[in-house]
Amino acid sequence: MKSSRSAKAAIPVQPSPVAQRTVESLARAGEGKTVFERELVECARRLISLRKEVDKHIPPGLVKDFAWDILLELFINGEEGGIVYVKQLMLASGATPTSAMRLIDRLEDEELIERAPDPLDHRRVIVGLSERGRNAMIALLRKVLQQADPDNLTARPMPYKPRR
User: Fold this and answer.
1) Residue 124 scores a pLDDT above 80
2) Which residue intervals define the domain HTH marR-type in the entry (predicted)?
3) Are 114 and 127 in contact (CB under 8 A)?
4) CA-CA-CA-CA dihedral for 74, 76, 81, 82, to nearest 10
């Protein structure tokens, strides 16, 4: 006699549309990225890490730029094919929900970010860098990498010379 388990046919499980979109976006994450573009993403990750380190040495919130944190988060996720929702940005920024929404509104007014309704879940709003925002982040992160280059003579601190 065969067990009832072997008699049942396996039912194929279809992933949800959200899960499919996530897998597809992650699969595209590294496509066509140059080494330099990957370095920019790694630089943005280090900056986020450094921002968290600041709070260990200086009272939390004293040296904080929530908009910069939002832009870094959007840059990393955008370059890696991730999807960012307003709620995630609010948490990533560390600002209060009201302050975070004001910042998101201001960044959108300045055309640095774009918002769009999630086609799979109309309760959520997807946020990403605009072309202008992405170009600004690339320019800034390039400057950070250039400053971090030990061979870059212009990046070395100059000795202090008092004014006379």
Assistant:
1) yes
2) 68-124
3) yes
4) -60
| Helix (H) and strand (E) counts in the chain | 7, 3
Hey, where are the domains in the chain? 17-145
Answer for the pair 48, 66: CB distance below 8 angstroms, yes or no. no
Which 3 state secondary structure label does DSSP give 114? strand
CB 70 within 8 A of CB 103: yes
CB 123 within 8 Å of CB 143:
no
Q: Model confidence over 59-110: pLDDT tens digits?
A: 877 777 899 999 999 999 999 888 999 999 999 888 899 999 999 999 999 9
How far, in Å, CA of 104 to CA of 73, rounded? 13
Number of C-beta neighbours around residue 89 at 10 A:
25
